TrEMBL record:
UniProt name for this protein: Holo-[acyl-carrier-protein] synthase
Top-level taxonomy: Bacteria, Pseudomonadati, Chlorobiota, Chlorobiia, Chlorobiales
Purpose of the protein: Transfers the 4'-phosphopantetheine moiety from coenzyme A to a Ser of acyl-carrier-protein.
Molecular function terms from GO: holo-[acyl-carrier-protein] synthase activity; magnesium ion binding
Major localization listed first in the record, in broad terms: cytoplasm
Cofactor(s) it depends on: Mg(2+)
Reactions listed under catalytic activity: apo-[ACP] + CoA = holo-[ACP] + adenosine 3',5'-bisphosphate + H(+)
Species for this entry: Chlorobaculum thiosulfatiphilum
Domain 4'-phosphopantetheinyl transferase: 4-107
């Protein structure tokens, strides 16, 4: 069975939160590796908004939401060498595969996640 989750975020809202709370906001939402990838981008706030939308979309696809045992940092979204966003779920008893697409411009970030139940399959890069 497959489940889909979608989220859209206003980049200016995330930029405002980041400008106000800085690293404290990033540490609440992102793993250290995710933060490093966001900060390496030309527009870190847009990248942060994309990650935020991605984590929301993944939590919706899983049917858990962020507040029900799956924290922000339990969902890790890192780009592979080709730039493709790859999801790792750091939670006990998780099995399955999550595919993810993220897009953003100056105004909005959108993410779509597809969760497939069962054993994780090896990615082919």
């Amino acid at each position: 069975m497959a489940e889909v989750g979608v989220d859209i975020v206003d980049v200016s809202r995330i930029r405002s939160i980041y400008d106000r709370f800085g690293q404290a906001f990033m540490k609440k939402i992102l793993t250290d590796a995710e933060a490093a990838q966001c900060l390496s981008k030309p527009d870190p706030a847009a990248s942060l908004a994309g990650r935020f939308a991605a984590k929301e979309a993944v939590s919706k696809a899983l049917g858990t939401g962020i507040a029900k045992g799956l924290g922000w940092r339990s969902i890790e979204v890192l780009n592979n060498e080709a730039g493709k966003p790859c999801v790792s779920i750091h939670a006990p008893n998780f099995s399955g595969r999550v595919s993810l697409s993220i897009s953003h411009d100056r105004h909005s970030a959108v993410a779509m996640a597809l969760y497939e139940e069962g054993e994780a399959r090896k990615e082919v890069d």
